[in-house]
Write a structure and sequence with these properties.
Oligomer: single chain
Largest sheet: 5 strands, parallel
Shape: globular
Strand content: 15-25%
Low-confidence stretches: none
Mean pLDDT: 93
Number of strands: 10
Structural class: alpha/beta
Distance between the termini: 59 Å
Helix content: 40-55%
Length: 283
C-alpha cells in the first residue's frame, strides 16, 4: 500500500502564523524532507513539537538526486512531509520534482495550506487582484532579465515577482525600462515580520528609492498593462513585439496570436505587418 506525500506551508515570518495541522504532521510523519534542516529545528522549537520520524535535507542542490529515494519510500507506504524555508513547497522552492514523481506512481498528494508571500503581497499592494500572474525570480543576467520583462510588457494581469534585496534596484530599473516608469507597483518587504514594509509608487519612484539599499525578503507586485485601443499600436511596434517573443523562443504563430490579443487586434492584421516587414527586409 502506497504512502502519502504532504506539502506543508510554513510561516513566512511570524511563527504564530503556522497552520494548526503543521505540528501534528511534523510529529506524525515517517520522513520530514526539509529545505534547511537548521531552520526546521528552529521552527519545531518555536512550535514546541518533537519530530519522531527521519529528517532529510531536500534543497535545490540535491533535489534531483534525492527525489527517487523519497518516491521509493512513498511507494513503500511512508508518510513524507515536505517543508521549505517559508511558504508553500513547489512555489519557487523545491517540491515540483517530488510531486511529479508521486503523481506518476499514483501516490496520494495532499497539502497543509499555509502562509504565502505571493498572496499576502497581492492583498497588501493596493493593485487589482482579480487576475494575476506569478513570475517567480527574474534572471540574474542583465540582458536575460530585460528580455524576460519585455515579454511581459503587454500582460494585463497584475504581475508578482520575487527578488533578492541586493538585486532589487537593478530589477526595478529594468521594470521601469520595459514597462514604463509610470507603471504602478508595490515593494513588499519582510512580510509578517517585525520590520514589515510595503512601499507603493511608480516603478520610476521605487527604482530611485531602492538605490539607497533595501534589506530583507522581497516581493514585488506590478500593475498590469493598460488595455490598448484598436489601432493604437503601429505596424512597426507590432513587428517588434513579435520579434521579442520569437527571440524568447515562441513560435511565430503563437507570438502573433499573443501580440494580437495584447493589442486588441485581429491576428491577420499582425500577421500582415510581420509579412510586410519581412518582405521589406526590416524583420
Amino acid at each position: 500500500m502506497s504512502g502519502t506525500l504532504v506539502l506543508a506551508g510554513t510561516p513566512i515570518g511570524d511563527t504564530a502564523d503556522a497552520p494548526p495541522r503543521l505540528a501534528a504532521e511534523l510529529e506524525g510523519a515517517d520522513i520530514v524532507a526539509a529545505e534547511d534542516t537548521r531552520r526546521l529545528r528552529r521552527l519545531t522549537q518555536a512550535l514546541g513539537v518533537r519530530i519522531s520520524g527521519r529528517v532529510v535535507s531536500y534543497f535545490e542542490g540535491n533535489e534531483a538526486a534525492r527525489t527517487p529515494e523519497l518516491a521509493d519510500a512513498l511507494s513503500e507506504g511512508s508518510r513524507v512531509l515536505l517543508v521549505t524555508d517559508a511558504g508553500m513547497p513547489s512555489v519557487s522552492d523545491p517540491g515540483y520534482r517530488l510531486v511529479a514523481a508521486a503523481v506518476e506512481r499514483g501516490i496520494r498528494v495532499t497539502a497543509v495550506p499555509g502562509p504565502s508571500a505571493v498572496l499576502t503581497a497581492l492583498a497588501l499592494s493596493g493593485l487589482p487582484v482579480d487576475r494575476f500572474c506569478f513570475e517567480g525570480f527574474l534572471p540574474r543576467k542583465t540582458g536575460e532579465r530585460l528580455a524576460r520583462l519585455r515579454e511581459a510588457a503587454g500582460e494585463r494581469r497584475t504581475l508578482v515577482y520575487f527578488e533578492a534585496p541586493h538585486r532589487l534596484a537593478a530589477a526595478l530599473a529594468a521594470m521601469a525600462e520595459a514597462f514604463g516608469a509610470g507603471r504602478r507597483a508595490a515593494v513588499c518587504r519582510e512580510l509578517t515580520k517585525t520590520y514589515e514594509e510595503v512601499r507603493r509608487g511608480t516603478l520610476g519612484e521605487l527604482a530611485a528609492w531602492a538605490e539607497e539599499g533595501v534589506r530583507g525578503e522581497i516581493t514585488v507586485v506590478v500593475e498590469g498593462a493598460p488595455a490598448e485601443a484598436p489601432g493604437a499600436v503601429d505596424a512597426a511596434e507590432l513587428v517588434r513585439r513579435v520579434a521579442v517573443r520569437e527571440a524568447a523562443g515562441e513560435r511565430r504563430k503563437e507570438a502573433i496570436a499573443e501580440v494580437a490579443r495584447e493589442a486588441g487586434l485581429p491576428k491577420r492584421e499582425v500577421f500582415d505587418a510581420v509579412v510586410a516587414a519581412k518582405n521589406a527586409g526590416t524583420a
